[in-house]
Amino acid sequence: MAAGHRAIVRDRMFLRQVPRPRVFRDRSNPLEDLREEEIFARYRFRPDTIYFIVDLCQAAARDTGRCFAIPLVLCVLSYLRFLATGAFQLTVGDTVNLSQPTVSSLPPGFPNVVGVIDCTHVSIKKPSANPEDYIGRKGIPTINVQAVCDASYRITSAVVMWPGRTHDARIWRQCALRRRFEDGDMHGFLLADSGYACTRYMLTPYMNPVREAQARYNGALCRTRVTVEQTFGILKQRFQVLRRKLNCYPERACMHIRNCITLHNLGIDRRDIVAVDPIDPNDNPHYHRVDVGDNMDGRAAREYVTRMYFER
Fold this sequence. Notes:
Layout: H1 2-17, H2 30-33, H3 36-43, H4 47-64, H5 72-85, H6 89-95, H7 100-104, E1 113-123, E2 142-149, E3 155-163, H8 168-174, H9 176-182, E4 189-191, E5 202-203, H10 212-238, H11 240-243, H12 250-269, H13 296-310
Parallel strand pairs: 1-4, 4-5
Antiparallel strand pairs: 1-2, 2-3
Helix pairs in contact: 4-5, 5-6, 10-13
C-alpha cells in the first residue's frame, strides 16, 4: 500500500515537471473579419465608434504610461461584449480569443425644462456587508441609479452609489446637482414623478387634480417625463448586463454602470443609436402614493406653470 502511494506521488511530480505545450491563440481583429451589422449585433456599436473608443483608451494609456500586452482593440471589444451581453467572462473571452484570467483583469410641452429625472435599479450580486440595504422593491439586491437626461436621451447627470433600498427622494437630497439648484448655480425646471418633492425647480404631478388645467398639466408632464424611461430603455437595450445582473459586488458593479453611462453618451453624441420600442406615457404615470414633503415654493411654482401654460 505504501509503495503504491509513493508511486502515485512520484508520477504526479513527474507530470508537473513536464512542460505543457504553449497554446497560441489567433488574435485577429473581429472588426476586420465581420460585417458592420454583425459587429453591431455583438458589441452594440458601429465599427467607427469602436475605433473612436479605442483611440480614447489609447490616449489615456499614453497619459498614464501604461502599455498593453494584448492589442487594445481586443481589450475594448472584450469589455464591450461583456456589457452588451452580461455573459460570463469565459464566454466573452472566447468571442475575441482571450483567456479567462486575461478578461477578468480588463478594465414638449413645458417651459424652461433643463432635464428629466428618475431612478432605475440594476441587479447585483448579494453583498456580504449589510445585504439588507441592497434589497430593492423586487426583493433582490440592486444599485439604485439616479439619472437626469435631456431631450436627446443623453444622461447629463448620474449618481451611481446607493443601495437598492434607498428611496429616490433621499438620493436626490444628498446629490451635488440639488445643491447647485439650491445655490442658484442651475436655472430652469427638472421634471420628476411623485416620488420626489415638488420644489421651485422640480415639477411633479398633481396627486389629485381638481381642475381641467391641472389634468392637462399632468398629461403634459407625463408625455415629457417619459423621455427618462426611454433613456433607461436605450441604456439597457445596448448594455444587456444592466437588464440582467451584474454578477459582482457593489463597488465593481458601480464602476461597470458608470462605464455604461459614459459609453451610452458617447453613442448618443456620435448618433450610434440603439432602437427601442416607444413607451406610452398614459400607461406609465409613475405616481408614488407617498408623502415626500412638497413645500410652499414648489406648489406655487407648479400652480404658476399650470395657470400660464395650461389654462384655456
